[in-house]
Amino acid sequence: MARNANPSYTGAPMKIDVDPVPIRVPGFRFAGVACGLKESGNRDVAVIASAVPAIAAAAFTTNRVQAAPVVLGRPRAAAGRLQAIVVNSGNANAYTGRDGLATAHAMCRTAARALAIPETLVLPSSTGRIGVPPPREQLCRGVEAACAALSPDGFHDALAGIMTTDAFPKFAAETLLIGDREVTVAGMAKGAGMIAPRVLLAGRPVPTHATTLAYVLSDAAVSVAALRRALQAALPQSFNAIVVDGDTSTNDTVAVLANGLAANPSLSASSREFPELCGAVVRVLQNLARKIVKDGEGATKVIDIRVHGAKTRRDAERVADAIARSPLCKAAFFGGDPYTGRIVCAAGYSGATFDPAKLDVYLDDVQVVRGGREIVTRVERAAAAVVQRPEFTLTLHLHAGHAIAHRMAADLTLDYVKFNSDYRT
Amino acid sequence: MARNANPSYTGAPMKIDVDPVPIRVPGFRFAGVACGLKESGNRDVAVIASAVPAIAAAAFTTNRVQAAPVVLGRPRAAAGRLQAIVVNSGNANAYTGRDGLATAHAMCRTAARALAIPETLVLPSSTGRIGVPPPREQLCRGVEAACAALSPDGFHDALAGIMTTDAFPKFAAETLLIGDREVTVAGMAKGAGMIAPRVLLAGRPVPTHATTLAYVLSDAAVSVAALRRALQAALPQSFNAIVVDGDTSTNDTVAVLANGLAANPSLSASSREFPELCGAVVRVLQNLARKIVKDGEGATKVIDIRVHGAKTRRDAERVADAIARSPLCKAAFFGGDPYTGRIVCAAGYSGATFDPAKLDVYLDDVQVVRGGREIVTRVERAAAAVVQRPEFTLTLHLHAGHAIAHRMAADLTLDYVKFNSDYRT
Predict the structure, then answer these.
(1) Confidence check: pLDDT of B419 > 60
(2) Closest-CA distance of chain B to residue A285, Å
(3) Which helix (H) or strand (E) holds A27?
């Protein structure tokens, strides 16, 4: 079943920019081509290249099984400089052994040669089916073709090349003034299934869940340390706060490249104007992450789960994650049922420390549990109306401390099961 | 949707004893009546009573939100002696505050009065919807009626009274010789949804997952310590090894009562014949637990997940649990797809320490991953044939040590989502 052919897929109040509004980032060129990895014949190879080496920060999946491009790309990103990104969709190049690693190398080498840059400045990514060795020569011919097609106007072509089961393209862009220079921050992402990113940035543990690939490109001049700080600030509020199904992929990659061509005075983490760049990176990644949940396989709803008053942040995350992953809660959200018993139950088994007799629970602004007593029967109609919205916020106050957490979750739907039980989706 | 009206529900090779073969346990009487808690008018109150006080061991949910009957029953079971069990289905009496606790008390008091026994020897249980205070008087009238109907032949009536969304009754019985005395061990259970028991026995941490209620009744003469030892031995291999959806209930209760009327020489944990009684308790609980997975809401398959060669038992359990709970793996099982990439991916994010390059994976006797290389494409037809069976074993060898774990899991099906997204199931 092709997701974009799903007639029951319903629209959303969240504004989704499906028209290919032109996106340009000074100094960056883009291309997306089809090399035949996808049976549909859609674009399956993307290349993004900067005119000059860019400062880079990236985060990768924490899954112990790491796809070949992740193994290869991690130390390159850790070095703090990248000039090109080469991506294929339709095959994850994960669990493919030495052969797969050689293919990831070949992809990068092909791009490096075509762009006349060192191979170590090329970051590879792959997404698609796990465990099938990708056809190396076919893929490399695709990379060559993409390098030949690079254009400042190719953003949407590249984006098409990274997509798999996505029903719509995911992108976001901002411009801001730093000093008197206009700076662009633009991002693209793919998502859909296996979404529960736990990505780790440069050796510091930051949980993420998906096959999520996300690339943020900027012409800002910024130090490596500052760019890492911005990514580190963004992840817990964006990619590491989303759950579609709770399966953490072998391929998750979030990379930010800044090539400095805006010629603003270079920002360090202590610069007066750093918070503005950081804010833009956070907003772009949040925008992309939310679209991934919105477009989760089969998803009909986005639920913001907010936990307040936890004893520790870990406890707040435990409660939010338990609800975000609970099949029973997610099925009730799908059905538009304000079944708070399942929510309270999930909080109870989450492992967090709290007194159930003090719990408050809200669905948007409708309180459904007060001081540990379920009062949903009194507000049944109002509560049901909230849960039937395509987006709503579920808030729990544990009254056990002052820590908070936020998760964006999709519901569990018939289409999710249909899609993922289809032989070889 | 009534589960037993589901036309797509397919039979299973596992023998299920749906005919009410008579089960008697010397000294025990049983009853099940309808008091109107279930809209269907089916039996919703059960009472089990022993002619004399019985030795008792019980385990209860580890969910922080504990149903009223769990709060009340836990210290009673911990005292090691019980004479009656009173159960209602159709209402979980969970998250119902002081009022709910008073109702659980009233259930027990009513039974104690009718049976002329101390209230502290009565164990209460409830199962059904969370967060709705049960109608106390109606329930107590039901308990009175059940006490009046008690009969040595009422086993199946009582079993009907504890069921909720179960499609078939779950019971198992054995007789064994201890010395020259015949001893009976018989059990009944209910399951269906919210199944991922993590029960805790008498202060010692033993994980379980469900609304599972299970009662094992025996006429054996045995010490409290020995009976606890038997339950402790059985749980990791039975109720704490099953996962339907991964939601751990507020009400899980597993209790074993032994009234001594077989008049065998009383068994301690060091008795020569204790292993025989222990084995019977283990087999009866395993039989019940497996039936709960088989009858998991919407389930079409039982998958035995066996992890070998883990560094620690915790690691082995992590891998088995990650697969048992992974929506992607469970949907592939439903679809009969031998998608080993998803299995390897779940092992990878489980948190267990192992080298993916050494992994072996088998579907029944078909090896699909050898030394970290997926070889499923070579054995595609044979592997698909296994996954399309209604029961199969998935074995992972991590080659990281010598610890093992076993889980019995259900698949994730369209019917699971349909059933649990129906408003107020």
Answers:
(1) yes
(2) 23
(3) none
Indicate which of B95, B315, B380, B414 best probes the interface with A, i.e. most A CBs within 10 Å of its own CB: B95
Could you tell me if the ipTM is greater than 0.95?
A: no
Do the chains contact at A92 and B341, CB–CB below 8 Å?
A: yes
Report percent pLDDT > 70 for chain A. 90
Residues 6 or more apart whose Cβ sits within 8 Å of residue A65: A94, A95, A250, B344, B345, B347, B348, B356
Computed from CA positions of residues A30, A32, A33, A35, in that sequence, does the dihedral angle turn out positive or negative? positive
Superfamily of domain A22-294: L-amino peptidase D-ALA esterase/amidase (3.60.70.12)
- The yes-or-no verdict on residue B308 having pLDDT over 90 is yes
Question: pLDDT for B196-228, tens place per residue?
Answer: 555 555 434 333 334 789 999 999 999 999 999
Locate all alpha helices (DSSP H) within A134-214, ordered by sequence: 136-148, 155-162
d(CA A82, CA A53): 6
Can you tell me the mean pLDDT for B360-366? 94
**pLDDT tens digits, A8-24:** 223 333 444 455 678 99
Chain A residues whose CB is inside 8 A of the B62 CB are 349
Q: What is the DSSP string of B228-282?
A: HHHHHHHGGGTGGGEESSSPPPS--EEEEEE--TT-PPPB-TTSTTHHHHHHHHH
CB interface of B with A, residues 38-67, below 8 Å? 62-66
Sheet containing B403-410, strands listed edge to edge, beginning at the edge strand earlier in sequence: B242-243, B403-410, B302-310, B391-397, B360-363, B366-370, B373-374
Chain B residues whose CB is inside 8 A of the A303 CB are none
pLDDT value, residue A210: 43
A71 near B CB under 8 A = no
Interface test with A, best of B99, B380, B421 (most A CBs within 10 A): B421
> Is A332 within 8 Å of chain B by CB?
yes
| Cα distance between residue A274 and residue A276, in whole Å | 5
Q: Which of B65, B327, B369 sits opposite A246 (nearest CB)?
A: B327
* Residue A144, SS3 per DSSP: helix
pLDDT for the residue B246: 65
What chain B residue is nearest to A336 in terms of C-alpha separation?
B423
Q: Is the pLDDT of residue A244 over 80?
A: no
pLDDT at B200: 53
Residue A195: pLDDT band by 50, 70, 90 thresholds?
Answer: low
The vertex-A86 CA angle with A27 and A120, nearest 5°, equals 85
On chain A, the residues whose CB falls within 8 A of the CB of B63 are: 345, 348-349
CATH 3.60.70.12 fits B17-294, yes or no: yes
CB B350 within 8 A of CB B396: no
Tell me the whole-structure pTM to 2 decimals: 0.81
Q: In this predicted model, what pLDDT tens digit does every residue of A66-104 receive, in sequence order? A: 999 999 999 999 999 999 999 999 999 998 889 999 999
Same fold, B17-294 and B302-421: no
Query: For the domain A302-421, what is the CATH superfamily, name and number?
Result: ArgJ beta chain, C-terminal domain (3.10.20.340)
Question: Counting one residue from A and one from B, how many pairs have CB atoms under 8 Å apart?
Answer: 214
- Residue of chain A minimizing CA distance to B368: A131
Across the range A237-260, mean pLDDT stands at 87
In A, residues 163-222, which contact B (CB 8 Å cutoff)?
193-194, 196, 198
Pairwise CA distance, residues B218 & B281, whole Å: 9
Q: Which chain A residues are Cβ-neighbours of B101 within 8 angstroms?
A: none
Q: Give the one of A248, A329, A345 whose C-beta lies nearest to B63's C-beta.
A: A345
Gap between the Cα atoms of A36 and A90, Å rounded: 9
Q: Which residues 229-258 of B have a C-beta within 8 angstroms of A?
A: 245-250
Domain ranges of chain B: 17-294, 302-421
